[in-house]
Design goal:
The protein has 450 residues and is of the alpha/beta class. It is built from 14 helices and 16 strands. Helix content is 40%, strand content 22%. The strands form three sheets. The chain has an eight-stranded mixed beta sheet, sandwiched between helices. The protein has a six-stranded antiparallel beta sheet with strand order 12-13-11-14-16-15. A two-stranded antiparallel sheet has the order 5-6. The chain is globular. The protein binds adenosine-5'-diphosphate and magnesium ion. Adenosine-5'-diphosphate binds next to loops.
């Protein structure tokens, strides 16, 4: 083990994550190289090039349906795209050859699943290829341009446990030896998204998981800062995909971002800030296309000015249990909650009255079993295609009349449930997804932008 490398690890490094669009073309990869190569040692986490993971999901779906012909056509298309990328990315014959070998290796792996049986490990192996390719090509590009860069294989240190939660202890123990083994370098590159599971099989941190990879690494090496580089100038006060006139927020607290990301702000994977919050490591969101912009800084401090932002989470199912007899008897809610616990289904919102209790879930895998058991306690009604709209800020500090302001803003929106007072950071309303966009726009117009 080299002393020098150990010393380098002890120097505080930054962890920078670049998303799919940021590495989505050879030109963008070169722009990322310029941002990375500033002379400061760092760990760079990369996603797959944009579009790749969707294409790999499509290929897996064809294979699940045993539609090998369509799978082969999709594989051929994607492989051809990567061959063009390699041609454009490198200047020397030797590196073009190495790049093509990287691509061939990954696509040989994908093609190996077009015969024989196809299951979860096969699917996860296919989904991992996007990050495996992007990181190898980027490392080669850095070295071609004279920056000494080493690859840290994520599967050697990134792990989830039986409950699919990240195993931070394992990651902390394993990442240092991996850095040491990689050897002396100016820059380190690793794959976002992918990991091993408790059985040692290849798995992943779910869509958007590269953000989570970056914060887990940041927490594991006690990084100076975790930077999430993406295609927008920071955290906006509303979802720019659905609402006009959203504005960037300069500073947010870990708690505020945890609520917003959990409730659907796509800019960050829902769990991203949790490891950073444990170690109190600042997280900064930056725009790869506009690096001069300050972005959004996330720390343990809120800048304390009332409502900050709203976000929406789709795919929510509302369940109402109506019971004349025993609703408010003690033990009733416990019995209800136990059913959800037994079926490993988290509850997001809850609302009670004398005659009924309503709650929401987003994982409907076991809904039929849950419904059957709930039927013992009363009449069960289920509404699907709902969205939780979450309004986040330091709400206690907001002047009086906050709730009425929210309800005035939502005049005309059919609200199915409301949750207020659970924490001082959030008020949530449940609306049909068909009304999500108008709900978000109404909040921007009447609450955020004046
Ligand atoms: P990456 O591929 O870099 O991870 P993502 O597409 O996952 O990028 O996240 C960035 C996108 O998140 C933005 O382009 C934007 O459309 C969307 N987004 C949703 N909500 C917000 C928000 N509150 N602030 C900023 N961006 C948001
Ligand atoms: Mg993302």
């Amino acid at each position: 083990m080299s002393r020098k490398i150990l010393k380098d690890i002890e120097i505080k490094m930054k962890v920078l994550k670049f998303g799919g669009t940021s590495v989505g073309s050879p030109a963008n990869m070169r722009a990322v190289m310029k941002l990375v190569a500033d002379g400061e040692k760092k760990i760079v986490v990369l996603s797959a090039m944009s579009g790749t993971t969707n294409a790999l999901v499509e290929i897996s779906n064809f294979l699940h349906k045993k539609n090998k012909e369509s799978a082969s056509i999709a594989i051929g298309k994607l492989e051809a795209k990567y061959k063009e990328v390699v041609d454009e990315l490198f200047s020397t014959e030797a590196n073009i050859k190495t790049g093509l070998a990287v691509v061939k290796d990954s696509f040989d792996t994908v093609k190996s699943f077009t015969s024989g049986s196809f299951g979860e490990v096969g699917e996860n192996t296919i989904l991992a290829q996007g990050e495996l390719i992007s990181t190898q090509l980027f490392t080669l590009l850095m070295n071609e341009n004279g920056y000494v860069t080493r690859l840290l294989p994520a599967l050697d240190f990134m792990k989830i446990d039986e409950d699919k939660a990240a195993d931070l202890l394992y990651i902390r123990e394993h990442i240092r030896p991996v850095i040491e083994k990689a050897g002396e370098a100016e820059y380190y590159v690793t794959q976002g998204f992918i990991c091993l599971d408790a059985d040692g099989n290849i798995n992943n941190l779910q869509r958007g998981g590269s953000d989570y990879t970056a914060s887990l690494i940041g927490a594991a090496i006690d990084a100076e800062e975790i930077e999430i580089w993406t295609d927008i100038d920071g955290f906006h006060n509303n979802d720019p995909r659905f609402v006009e006139n959203t504005r960037k927020i300069e500073q947010l607290s870990f708690n505020e971002v945890a609520e917003l990301a959990y409730f659907g702000a796509k800019i960050l994977h829902p769990q991203t800030v949790l490891p950073a919050r444990i170690q109190n490591i600042p997280v900064r969101l930056k725009n790869t296309m506009n690096p001069a912009d300050s972005g959004t800084l996330i720390t343990d401090k809120s800048d304390g000015k009332g409502i900050k932002a709203v976000a929406a989470k789709d795919g929510i199912t509302a369940i109402k249990i109506r019971s004349g007899r025993m609703l408010m008897a003690y033990g009733f809610l416990k019995n209800i909650f136990e059913i959800f616990e037994r079926h490993r289904t988290p509850i997001d919102m809850i609302s009670t009255s004398e005659v009924a209790v309503s709650l929401t879930i987003d994982n409907t895998t076991n809904i039929e079993l849950i419904k059957k058991e709930l039927n013992k306690f009363g009449t069960v009604e289920i509404d699907t295609d709902m969205s939780i709209v979450c309004i986040v800020g330091d709400i206690i500090q907001e002047e009086k009349g906050f709730a009425s302001k929210v309800f005035n803003a939502l005049n005309g929106i059919p609200i199915r449930m409301i949750s207020y007072g659970g924490s001082k950071y959030n008020i949530s309303v449940l609306v049909p997804t068909s009304h999500k966009k108008s709900t978000l726009q109404a909040l921007s117009n009447n609450l955020l932008n004046n």
